[in-house]
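Why this split exists: single-chain examples teach little about how molecules sit against one another. For that reason, every record in the complexes split bundles all components of an assembly together and asks for one structure covering all of them. Below is a record exactly as it appears in the raw files.
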Amino acid sequence: MSTTDGANSNNDREERMSQVTGKQGSINQDHSAAKQSVATHSLSDVASARRAKLGQPIAGSTGLEARGVHAWFGKKHVLEDISMDFFSGTVTALIGPSGCGKSTFIRILNRMHEFIPTAALAGQVLLDGKDVYEPGVDVTKIRLRVGMVFQKPNPFPSMTIKENVLSGLRLAQIKIENADELLESCLRRAGLWDEVKDRLNEYGGALSGGQQQRLCIARSLAVNPQVLLMDEPCSALDPGSTLRIEETVRELAASMSIVIVTHNMQQAARVSDYTGFFLSDGGPGRLIESGTTEEIFSNPKQKRTEDYVSGRFG
Amino acid sequence: MTQTLTAVQPGRPWKLTQKQILPDLFGAIFTVAATLAIVAISPLKGKLGFALTLIFMAIITATAISWIRRDRKAAMNSTTTVLVYIAAAFVIMPLFSVIYEIFKLGSVGFSFGIFTDDMAETSAASPLTEGGLLHAVIGTAYIVIFATLISTPVGILTALYIVEVKGRFAGLVRFFVQAMSGVPSIVAGLFIFAVWMIQLGNAYSGIAGGFALTVLMIPTVARTSEEVLKLIPQDLREAGLALGATQWRTVAMVIIPAARSGLVTAVILGVARVVGETAPLLLTIGGADAINLNPGEGNMSAFPYYVWKNLLIGDENAISRAWTGVFVLMILVLIIFTLARYFSTVRGNKK
């Protein structure tokens, strides 16, 4: 078991290293090897440069809170005792190697976890102080308030761009008067308006991957969620589109709280105010450390966090 | 720089040149010539002998040419290619042969007059200019539309139960649907005959025939719809649910529109399954020679019945009428399928 883990983390490091060097390499290919260490260290600089807006955890009134969350798939314990606060107006990044339960965790936050037949859960997820898993809670209302953007862009193929953006309203049977205004504002906030304003009646599938993902973001904005969960939203996109989405995330953070799962350290450092580091040592995934992004990247308390964010994992 | 740009012509460098095609052409000619020679000198005679020799020679020639020009791998590739072409020909030839035969024999008695008259006052043996099959058109239309109206919702809802709801009995329902699709068609007819007519005391009617075809059509629609719904990516379901929709809204607004074309195909396959069924209709519609506009009462005719009856009469003109019936049925089915395909692929005009 431990050997496999070692191999996994090695792969992960290599993958990340190549991402890091790739970024630098595109700027100056000749010195990519030399720049590698600089790039790795610059993560903390990136994080520092982006000042953490310290959201205040006002008890029971803002944001989302996970308390002692455990998760199982069948008999397999995949998450152990995760407690995390997500403050409104901030971006929280969840980092960690593959298979450590990050995605499972954010799917727990808007009750998408329960669609996996063997799934089980313990603990509480508080939204404005109320447990979303309490019996009698209307799960569709929870998902309206906690939106989600998936790893793979998934616009509805049978709908046009316009219908896609407004689909949340129709799906949840919400009536609004100024649909066109909402359409424009959602697309603007998702950074897609200028690219699609002349072809709102084309099908969503006709857009490029990056545009489709921003369309999916616009779609989740239309129902005005107070939390937006993003599960590796950029993993299938090119650097240009990734950058656009990161800009979008930063703009959105002003009005809602965002939780983003990412494998890209640079991305975590660039977009987030808080970072949580997940790790599984063969058993269930645990939250090793969480804090402001600046702290995690420049001065982590845990050795394992430092090893992971600096690329010396394992 | 600009000169090179303007001088560039779009080409297809991967296309075979004439020089490269020549050996294949010679090979083909050699195959035919060798086959003719072998058939002429050997005891192999007739169409069958010719076909077998041709197949054999085609495989040998194609393999040999590839082996000489390239290598063993190319030879294997050529052998397989020829075998696939032969297999395709085996499928296509009977099909075209059937279509040709139906066209040849069916068009003899075909005129537009047959769509305006029935056989109420015409004997099957009378000249083909008299009488018609309007009663069969009306009967088949009633019965098939009735069966489609019932089996489309039932079949699709069954598929939704199996794929989307994944209820406790999904496995059981799937098992029964599969078992039902293996039911011989005459059993479906007997079932309706026993339950609807004997037990409930109804007489022969178009509706009874419709019920019998429904029994046959539901499993086809349900199974095909199930396969289609399984192809819809899980992503879309999650995207809908994550937007705060109930499962029903997600299915109605996201899943079904995304699967629309496939669901139409499922219904088309269902219609194709039942439109030519004869046995269940013989037991349920009673058969008629006159137009019956009331599907709920009285004996009804249908295409398969019309064909069956005229074939049984055995008179030359009657048999010709039977072929015309098959011919018209084929054309009508073709028209319906083309329309259904068209409407399922054309996306509605969006403002």
